[in-house]
Write a structure and sequence with these properties.
By secondary structure, the protein is mostly helical. The chain has one domain. The chain has two helices and no strands. It is globular and about 30 Å long. About 5% of the residues are buried.
Length: about 50
């Protein structure tokens, strides 16, 4: 189950080819956005563009 707080951001990520972390929608703070993306990168769900 996806946490309701992160739902908008995760839906955005799943529908978007590339994005800046600051573009994530929803009520996440900047630190939460960075933490979410860092976790997804760590688990190889996302990759950082060169």
């Amino acid at each position: 189950m996806i946490n309701d707080i992160a739902r908008d951001a995760l839906e955005f990520i799943s529908c978007t080819g590339s994005f800046y972390v600051r573009e994530l929608p929803g009520t996440l703070t900047d630190d939460e956005k960075v933490g979410l993306v860092a976790t997804l990168v760590e688990h190889r769900v996302l990759r950082v563009a060169p």
